[in-house]
Amino acid sequence: MDKDSRVEQLLEASIQIADHMHESGIAATGVAQIKKLLQEQLLKMEHGGTAALESDSKFLRLEQIMEGLIRSTREEYLEETAHAPNVYEAKPIKEQMLQEQAYHEKIDYLSLYKIKENIEQMRNLLGK
User: Fold this and answer.
1) Which of 1, 20, 60, 92 fits a 20 to 30 Å CA distance from 105?
2) 3-state DSSP helix/strand/coil percent for the chain, to nearest 5?
3) What are residue 22's phi and psi, to 5 degrees?
4) CB burial string 94-108: b at 16+ within 10 A, e below
5) DSSP character for 68?
6) Among 22, 16, 7, CA closest to 101
7) Which of 22-31, 57-66, 73-82, 118-127 has the highest mean pLDDT?
8) Tens digits of residue pLDDT in 70-127
9) Residues near 44 by Cβ (< 8 Å), separated by ≥ 6?
């Protein structure tokens, strides 16, 4: 797979992940910003390939927003699991789902972390 295709694939996957998140309040605003920046990058890709992204500083902005969201979501997840996420995650998934807020925080935290990994992969591909 060539670089352009892989970067486009990572952008599309990240947008799809952001679409399925259940954040509220300030975190929802952050997720909306991330999604908007990712969509802008995808649009640039469609018109100019990775060359259009290589001089763009939006990846740095994306990472800054991501860091703050990951920290706040992780803190909310810790609070929802009484600072024992390992105990919570050791439960069967059906039991985890009964604690709806903790489950959503877990999924959102993991989703943000995956988007962060995708952004890092894109930056590596673009040589940033």
Assistant:
1) 60
2) 85, 0, 15
3) -120, 40
4) eebeeeeebbbbbbb
5) H
6) 22
7) 73-82
8) 999 999 999 999 999 999 999 999 999 999 999 999 999 999 999 999 999 998 888 8
9) 52, 53, 56
**Which pLDDT does position 56 carry in this prediction?**
64
Residue 22 has pLDDT above 90, yes or no: no
CA dihedral angle for residue 112, residue 118, residue 120, residue 126, rounded to 10 degrees: -150
pLDDT in tens, 6-18: 999 999 999 999 9
Please give the Cα distance from 119 to 38 (Å, whole number). Answer: 9
Q: What gap in Å lies between CA 49 and CA 76, rounded to an integer? A: 38
pTM, two decimal places: 0.89
Residue type for position 50: T
* Dihedral over Cα of 74, 79, 85, 91: its sign: negative
Contacts of 127 (CB under 8 A, 6+ apart): 54
